[in-house]
Amino acid sequence: MKRCYALSGIYDMRDSMDGMYDDNFYFNNPVDYMANQHDPWFLHQYGSCDIRLVTALAHGRTAGRPTECPRS
User: Fold this and answer.
1) Percent helix, strand, coil in the chain (nearest 5)?
2) What per-residue confidence (pLDDT) applies to 16?
3) What radius of gyration, in Å, describes the C-alpha atoms of the chain?
4) How far apart are CA 35 and CA 32, in angstroms?
5) I need a surface site. Which of 4, 31, 44, 66 has the fewest CB within 10 A?
6) C-alpha span between 69 and 8 (Å, rounded)
7) Cβ atoms of 37 and 29 closer than 8 Å
8) Per-residue pLDDT for 8 more than 70?
9) Given pLDDT bands bounded at 50, 70 and 90, which one contains residue 61?
10) The predicted structure's pLDDT at residue 58
11) DSSP strand E in the chain: where?
12) Distance between CA atoms of 48 and 34, rounded to whole angstroms?
């Protein structure tokens, strides 16, 4: 069984890094490396997993409609 439940968290850390950016940061910031991931083996592995990213809004914000990530 391949499941990942990520409950809250920061999924794009660029705003917290004061401009610092290197390979270590790149590979630990999913927004960056997943956008450039084109390897069919890795994409198949990710596509075969049940991945849920659960986030919340800051106080005073209103929510839009939930978004489903498309499966390839």
Assistant:
1) 25, 15, 60
2) 85
3) 15
4) 6
5) 66
6) 17
7) no
8) yes
9) low
10) 63
11) 3-7, 50-54
12) 15
Give CA–CA dist 25/29, Å, rounded. 6
Give the three-class secondary structure for 49.
coil
What pTM value is reported for the model? Answer: 0.54
Question: Between the CA of residue 67 and those of 10, 20, 47, 55, 57, what are the distances in Å?
Answer: 18, 31, 17, 12, 14
User: How far is it, in rounded angstroms, from Cα 54 to Cα 61?
Assistant: 16
With contact defined as beta carbons under 8 Å apart, do 54 and 7 qualify? yes
Instruction: Supply the mean pLDDT for the chain.
Output: 80
What are the tokens at 34? 């997943």
